[in-house]
Write a structure and sequence with these properties.
Number of helices: 14
Structural class: alpha/beta
Largest sheet: 4 strands, parallel
Helix content: 40-55%
Distance between the termini: 40 Å
Number of domains: 2
Strand content: 5-15%
Order of helices and strands: HEHEHEHEHHHEEHHHHHHH
Radius of gyration: 20 Å
């Protein structure tokens, strides 16, 4: 970890660090294992997989950077803390933070890890009577969301400072096939306009060349889960002609669909299972 982290950055995580220290020194909390994650939605997902009587699943304000600070600090004091963060592009770069007890999602993030499970993904589509089109829908969304993924990847590697927050998408819709196509030029234009502090102005040709040079075969490592869900929402909305479908509804359905039986199939589960065997804690729930 960098030694020049700002004092302001450390203040964000210090409350959680002190909370855990106090808990571990108490009679009721001395045997608890803390599972630290990036955000509130992560707590909703991961809490289903850990035994409530021996674990606390909590998020650290400030996202992945503050999670790493908290984990790096606490693992020097106790074995009873682990961290789980989205891999983002780390699996593609093979350049992981060197922090003890830190684990990563199998795919780009936990949402894409859930989407990877065909059973969990199809459960979402039952809500909209689209389960028969499951494979085609998934591939359509992966293909279109991959373009956004390449822009995000290019932005990260080149430190472009592109602002993706709250981005929406325009798509063309084919009535016969229900296939949707992302309006790429519109997306590029909007990203440039909403990023006054950008260091590089992006264009479609640059992103296409970047995509060809990287030629990433595993879309699940490239695509951001929130992009996937937003584009999936547009596909559902247009296919079913239902203007009431919201991205948040789709995200909730995905979380509800994903159960420990699905999680058990991941490499992350296997790594956590190894950790609990090596450290003498039973933190994972049993699979029925």
């Amino acid at each position: 970890m960098e030694k020049d982290r700002s004092l302001r950055g450390n203040v964000v995580s210090v409350d959680k660090i002190n909370e855990i220290r106090l808990s571990l020194r108490s009679k009721t909390g001395c045997e608890v294992v803390w599972v630290l994650v990036e955000g509130e939605d992560d707590c909703k997902i991961y809490s289903k997989f850990f035994a409530e009587n021996v674990t606390r699943v909590e998020f650290v304000n400030g996202g992945k950077d503050q999670l790493l600070i908290a984990l790096e600090t606490l693992t020097q004091e106790t074995r009873q803390v682990v961290g789980i963060r989205d891999a983002d592009f780390l699996h593609l770069e093979r350049n992981y933070p060197s922090v003890a007890n830190l684990f990563f999602t199998d795919c780009h993030d936990i949402e894409m890890t859930m989407v990877y499970s065909d059973a969990a993904f199809k459960n979402i589509l039952y809500e909209y009577s689209l389960q028969q089109e499951g494979d085609e829908i998934k591939q359509n969304i992966l293909t279109e969301a991959s373009f956004v993924g390449y822009i995000r990847y290019y932005n990260e590697l080149n430190t472009c400072s592109i602002n993706f927050k709250g981005i929406g998408y325009n798509v063309d819709f084919e009535d016969n096939t229900h296939h949707i196509t992302l309006d790429r030029s519109c997306l590029i234009q909007e990203l440039n306009q909403r990023s006054p502090d950008k260091k590089i102005t992006i264009d479609e040709n640059t992103i296409n060349q970047f995509a060809q040079s990287k030629n990433i075969q595993n879309s699940y490592q490239l695509v951001n889960g929130h992009d996937f869900i937003k584009i999936l929402m547009l596909r559902i909305k247009k296919t079913k002609n239902n203007l009431n479908v919201k991205a948040d509804n789709v995200a909730i359905s995905l979380r509800n669909s994903y159960q420990i039986a699905h999680f058990r199939e991941t490499e992350l589960y296997s790594q956590l299972l190894d950790w609990q065997r090596q450290n003498g804690f039973t933190i994972l729930k049993a699979v029925a």
